[in-house]
TrEMBL record:
<dbReference type="Pfam" id="PF07080">
    <property type="entry name" value="DUF1348"/>
</dbReference>
<dbReference type="InterPro" id="IPR009783">
    <property type="entry name" value="DUF1348"/>
</dbReference>
<dbReference type="InterPro" id="IPR032710">
    <property type="entry name" value="NTF2-like_dom_sf"/>
</dbReference>
<protein>
    <submittedName>
        <fullName>Nuclear transport factor 2 family protein</fullName>
    </submittedName>
</protein>
């Protein structure tokens, strides 16, 4: 069986590490890489969609990042128990027309003994923003402010 460290039971340090690893994986925007942190039969609720298994995760994320361009995410640990983690997050992205959004939400994660996520339940809301109001910028992004 594959393992994905850190594994439960979580401590504050390992829960924080698990959240950072998830943030890093999602910011890669690589659906295949992201899918490997989930069990082969993972169950998701993402907004109004129900996703089952790694293949559906890859298909979902491929479509997501084709729509949500220049996606940049920040996750924060909210709470944890032995094998569960709750996070709050926000991310920014723009559509093909150049309209920017900030998406806010919460996720509840359940892990198996090998550290793979069995269940992910996400509630997410999108808010239109002006590009100058972005929080998450890459080093190459230019910010032009009106004087």
């Amino acid at each position: 069986m594959e393992k994905r460290f850190p594994v439960p039971p979580f401590t504050l340090a390992t829960a924080l590490e698990k959240v950072q690893l998830a943030e890093d994986a999602w910011n890669s925007r690589d659906p295949q890489r992201v899918s490997l942190v989930y069990t082969p039969d993972t169950e998701w609720r993402n907004r109004d969609q129900f996703i089952n298994g790694r293949e559906e995760v890859v298909a979902f994320l491929t479509g997501k990042w084709a729509k949500e361009l220049d996606y940049k995410l920040k996750k924060e640990l909210w709470s944890f128990t032995e094998n569960k983690i709750a996070v709050k997050f926000e991310y920014e992205w723009h559509d093909a027309a150049g309209n920017w959004f900030r998406s806010y939400g919460n996720e509840l994660w359940d892990f198996n003994a090998d550290g793979l996520m069995q269940r992910r339940f996400a509630a997410i809301n999108d808010v239109p923003i002006n590009s100058r109001d972005r929080k998450f910028r890459d080093a190459g992004d230019e910010l032009v402010l009106a004087c």
